[in-house]
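Q: For a teaching session next week I want to show students how multiple molecules come together into a single three-dimensional assembly. I've collected the sequence lines for a complex. Could you give me the predicted structure tokens for the whole thing so I can convert them for display?
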Amino acid sequence: MADKFNMKNPAVKRILQEVKEMQNNPSDDYMSLPLEDNIFEWQFAIRGPRDTEFEGGIYHGRIQLPPDYPLKPPSFMLLTPNGRFETQTKICLSISNYHPEHWQPSWSVRAALVALIAFMPTKPEGAVGSLDYSKEERTALAIKSRTHPPKYGNADRQRLIDEVHEYMLNKSPRVPECCAVTNNQEACKQSVMSDVEDQANIVTAATAEHSQAGEPEMVGNVHDMHVNANASPTEVRVSGELRLSTEPVVELIQTEQRNQEVRNNSTIREQTMPDDRGLTLLAVGLCVAIIALLIKKFLKSYWWIGA
Amino acid sequence: MDGSCDGGDGVVDAEWSCYRDDDIIQQQNAIQAEEALKIPFVGDKESLSALAAEYKTGSSILKAKIEVLDELYVAIRRTRGDGNCFFRSFMFSYLEHILETQDEAEVEHVLKNIEQCKKALLDLGYAEFTFEDFFSIFIELLESVIPGRDSSISIDTLIERSRDPLVSNYVVMFFRFVTSGEIRRRTDFFGPFIMGVSNGTVDQFCKTSVEPMGEESDHVHITALSDALGVPIRVVYLDRSSCDVGKTEVNHHDFIPSNCLLKEAGSETIEPSVVLLYRPGHYDILYPRLRSETPSL
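A: Of course. Below is the structure for the complete assembly, covering every listed component.
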């Protein structure tokens, strides 16, 4: 991948560093990758923040990096209808190019995505590209967002969008049924910047570990990540089911799952015989979910006819 | 956070609401492009009479001060007024000084300090990939002004590089990282000054007034950069302030890094090699007369 680009160009060099860093330290909350033929164009998906009406939603978007990135900020655009930001419109974030005066080159695509997630539950206050839909509408959009990724751009871009969607589906639990929405918008707003900073710290630690990895490994890493994502839906589903009742257990399971992933990473080949129990659980879980959805749908349609 | 992109918040100011953020951004870009045509990042060396010409019809205080300046300084080199003028002036003035004096010891000393700055940023939690490119471009430029090496460059090439947006902006950004790192590292020292000028925290100040490109510099920035790199800086003030009686004087302030103070205590006074002319809102480079040229004061 690196051979194709002009490594003398510091923007290209920086962006490749960010790609590598992103791939070495994947997150459950977001996923972002550049197009294969243009690293200044990225696709991303973020997961709706927990305990908000966006929880469980998967929101796709594109990022454009300017030729003089990181001196100038990237611009962001959402593609999945979400009720907070207009789609296909550049959005107004202090971290995006709507406020070039606030952008700092020490930020990154990762930091910007973290900021974007934190921004979702904040009040739009009339900002350009913002929407103020009701909680119910947003929840409905969150559910819908999981069904299929948006159709956008050429075949290559679509393939990337689909890939990102698949990854995020496996990483994020479904929309909670009792959408208990807490009023933590102010808190979120205030924590935006500290979140960015935390992220920067994480990034530092991560880059320190991975800085010796060579450029050509990049493509290989992508594949590892996807194999990984497909290998662990079982655990994800289980933790998703348990979530509502026993939080600490979930924590345990998630840590367990992460350990599992680490092990998977080194022994991907041995994964051809997956855990039977897990598969059964997955099947049962899926059936329950499908039946629940069907019943819900039937009830809804009868209700409509009745009314 | 996003309040400033507000489209008018209820009170509809018809005229203002016509301007969407896009238009404003475009207008800002247009102003910058226009400014760029007027003067390169770093201008040509001009005799001090060019400065006098600017104020021909200006205030008598300024004219008197320029006469005083004329006794001490021989030339001026202007920099573009894009908010980065302090850093840009410092960059050129310092590198030109090294090119002329061939002071390899100074380069060694600064390289050591740059290494410290890098460590400080890492300790503060900055990801290395976010600043390493800026560091390496400055170090490359710094090493290229030492004469007698394969990579050595002439003054003309230095001017050319300083006008190249890529090199020039990356060096400015390098200084911004160094400045921010120094301020954050010494929060206790800089905190009170920052409270005085911005009413915010050290962190907010660095985020809004140091790290973003195009944010203007003041005492805090200059002190931090001078201390971090260990390079003394003299700033000469050309403004309307006047002394009550007698001879007109031009104020200046020397920013002397603390390690210099220790080293030089008792010995001769330090004459900063980087001399900048400050007029409210802008910095340019000044060239002192050589001692032999200095008219008796």
